[in-house]
Specification:
homodimer; about 120 residues; mainly alpha; Arc Repressor Mutant, subunit A; three-stranded antiparallel β-sheet; DNA-binding
Chain lengths: ~120, ~120
DNA sequence: AACATTATATCGATTACCGATATATCATCG
DNA sequence: CGATGATATATCGGTAATCGATATAATGTT
């Protein structure tokens, strides 16, 4: 139905859906330990079974924003070799994650209720 | 934490989260039968337990867009009284709903997996 | 030496959503 | 009967998140 990728086609891919969710995904990834940006993207993709992906035009602005907002802190790895900026959760970020996890789970429950309902209607 | 409503504060309310989801909500609501816009908004709010809401600055542009895309069809109620535009699903809309329901459920599953994982990590 | 991958970064364009504003009908209450 | 509030639709400007393209550079692979 209608060429995929057409502008305005609005195919509900994970990207469009993910609007506003990426920050939560970053927090969730960092919950398991400090990581640099590229690794966060790989982890999110792996742990979500490929459902969520970060384009690098999306990833780095988000990390910068979250650092500016105090949710994460980044430090350039001192070692030689390819430069990496390693991020870790701040206390604020940790608190934010737990609060927002609760809230998003409510939202997911609401959405699932809607979808289940739509599925059950006979025709 | 940080005044709610502050720009850039990004509190993950249902609104920000809902980006791209509203269309699916409209389709799901219309699955139960033809409805006019205002009623769709009330239904969505009720069936999602208040999690999802349409502001009217959001609702009508979405309906127009979806009609232009062929997912729904609207007809002005012929009867007298307050004018209402009653929308119903097209075949395309019905097919779109069932396909996107599957896909969104996968996304929800991926997201839940991430959240559950983040919750389970000791510290 | 050539190439792919890792790794970070920025910028312009797109677009969905929000808030405000506008219009009009109908019901209710004083 | 006039005011108010709920119903009902509509548009517009602004905001902000995301995308795609582009850039840089070190490292691994062939």
């Amino acid at each position: 139905m209608s060429k995929p990728g057409t502008p305005g086609d609005q195919e509900f891919d994970a990207q469009g859906f993910a609007r506003g969710i990426h920050e939560l995904l970053v927090l969730a990834a960092l919950r398991e330990g400090p990581r640099h940006g590229y690794q966060i993207a790989l982890d999110v993709e792996a742990h979500s079974n490929g459902v969520f992906r970060f384009r690098h035009g999306t990833l780095y602005p988000i990390l910068h924003r979250m650092e500016a907002n105090g949710f994460i802190r980044g430090r350039w790895s001192s070692g030689a070799g390819r430069r990496k900026k390693v991020y870790s959760l701040t206390d604020l970020g940790r608190r934010h994650l737990s609060g927002e996890t609760d809230r998003v789970e409510d939202i997911l429950a609401g959405l699932m209720r809607m979808l289940r309902r739509a599925r059950e209607v006979p025709a």
